[in-house]
Predict the 3D structure of the following.
Amino acid sequence: MAGERILIAEDEEVTSWTLEVKLKELGFDVIGASTTGNGVVAMARDLRPDLVLMDIILKGERDGISAADEIKGELNIPVVYITAHASPDTVERACITEPFGYIIKPFTDKELRSNISMALHTHKMESKLKEANMELERLTNIDALTGIGNRRYFDNEIRKEWRLSVRYKRSISLILIDIDYFKLYNDTYGHVAGDACLKAVAGALNGALQRPGDTVARYGGEEFAILLCDTPLRGAALIAERIKQVVTELDIKHDASNVSEILTISIGVSSLIPEITNLPKELIEASDKALYKAKADGRDHIVVKLPEL
């Protein structure tokens, strides 16, 4: 672990200097020292050390526990307390900040090295585990074929956006899309071509959205869903027109279609400003009914429908 960058927070300058000498002898790189809580937080933001050695008693209005809490919470930098204060109340308060070590003065070089090394190792392992969990969460929300969100992702997003729409009394719109005669497309051109078709449509839908907060997901089979936050019905209808156009511009040959020589889509659109008594399924059902009507009317259509509340 030698060479790791350490920041010191110690109210006594002589003690701080002695500690710095010890750390350098042990092979660590001391990048700075502060005698105040606000000072060490500012230095941590600026220098981004690998670890902070934090005394609990510091000069100024802020102690080491308060500073450690901010450093760990905001910057995810591990903190090891190094202090002469070991009363039960102090230890209990310090433990709330989830430190990576607690060294009681006086201490030996071996105790100092082992505590720092263990803290750095533990933090590294925790960071790797967190990254792995985040990647796993991402993968469980991504449709493996198309690379866009899957049904699980859509369900989570509509619940989240629904709560925000209720709280802020704003519109939420849903566009449901179905590829026309997709089974016939698969039967005619094969499943490999069908998969390529789904990827192309997903990419076109994703590219048609212009706001980072909008959600596109594979709803199931050849169906896709687009969730638009803070978007009224008129705006959603305009986006539906754009979506229909970008899919047409893909110019994917579909000789088995009964409505066109190229691939087309049917679209159902709905929107509302939800109240606390409303449920997301009401919006989904309205968009689904609009999509059903678009298909019943001959496909290659857009139908807009308000929920029946």
User: Anything to note?
Assistant: The chain has a mean pLDDT of 92.
